[in-house]
Input
Amino acid sequence: MTPFVGPGVGRRRYARCRSISAIAWVPLMGFAATFAPSRILKAASYQSGGAGMAGTAADVLRFLEAIRMGGSPILKPETVGLMVRDQVGAAAGTLQWGGAYGHSWFIDRGNGLSVVALTNTAFEGMAGVFPTDVRNAVYGWKRR
Output
């Protein structure tokens, strides 16, 4: 992934359409979730596991394609094999994820697809109608 922390690195790669110092409060089940995109530029920020991983659409797609093609050079084939095992009843061989800042992606190994959508729509882009509509557009389905 693209490094966003370092001398002059992050600010030129971060989306120019929004202030990186903005803090937003987004409604979530009767509460408010706090979004602070500028934390990606702070080396001392809590890394929160995989949460907070950042990159451009091209970076994320390159990462997903490596996984789709077996993992090299970032993962062992055995690791990818465990990742694509049916864990929750999804389509066999398909991986999918979304994040609170509004991104979603899926890998369909059977059809040779890696799809990534990066939005600024918070939860809608992660788990709303949008990711379903993207999937339906990719496969040519109509909304049910």
Summary: The radius of gyration is 16 Å.
